[in-house]
Amino acid sequence: MIMVLHGSMKMVPTDFCGLLLPVLAVAFLFGSTAANEAMLCNGVKTIHSSPNGHSTGYITSPNHPKPYPAENMQCTFRFEPKVGEQVQLTFSYFNLRESSKVPATQNCDLSDSIKIFIGTTRSNTEHGNQVGEYCGRTHPEIVMAVSRPLTVIFTVRAKDNPTIGAVYMFKAKYTFTKDYGFKTHAHQNHSAGCHFTFDGRRELAPGTQSGNGHFDSPNFGGLYPFATNCLYTFRAYGNQTIRLNFDKFKVEGHHECHVFLSCIFAAVAERRMTSCT
Questions:
Q1: DSSP 43
Q2: What is this structure's pTM?
Q3: Dist. CA 264–CA 276, nearest whole Å
Q4: Dist. CA 228–CA 93, nearest whole Å
Q5: What is the Cα–Cα distance from 8 to 21, expressed in whole angstroms?
Q6: Chain CA centroid to CA 241, Å
Q7: 103: which residues sit within 8 A by CB, 6+ positions away?
Q8: Which residue has the higher pLDDT, 112 or 33?
């Protein structure tokens, strides 16, 4: 007689005897360090925020913190923020197995990889805009999705390049929030979404009539989110004036956008009204 037990899971042991061959079904599991829960790798894990609208956790490669197995598999994480909510994803460790035939520095076609998507298609059956595909040691940027799904697909396909001593795995932190990743003292108008107001009276330095601060794009330090309009309002009082100094400026768009902004900045510097088209 042979008795088969399935690890520590609460399953009824099965006895085999005579000519009956035992069949062992193996579920490949990987853990979520946030809740110490396990899930099937070849499937979709949907993650929502907590009822209070703010929650943080981690997603990891199978077998983390040990290297993930060199087995064909595809793991999908799907984050679904509520309306008016954002989800931010930050990778703290990233090292995936590369193919010896086509190095990851060239492309990810044969190497293990992670793809990140934001949104869905019109039919709501496919992933939306692809943010990027990452393999090898190419660390993904910090990404954010606003009121739309964020999907992470981890694909294992490379088996021919097991570098001795290498720790192949990834770990990423996710955060559901409503502040667009801003680290500023500005007042946020939550009913208007990405609308922040800088008040000249609140920004004053003690004993003076002047003050300074900073503002930045949503998810600063990473990629600003798709299809997001942000409004920054600066309120001056009395003899106060407002001066904006852009330390960093890089946005997607066309040349005409930069021409338009240059016109606006020049008009503000010269304190004149103008028409910029």
A1: S
A2: 0.71
A3: 7
A4: 28
A5: 23
A6: 38
A7: 111, 136
A8: 112
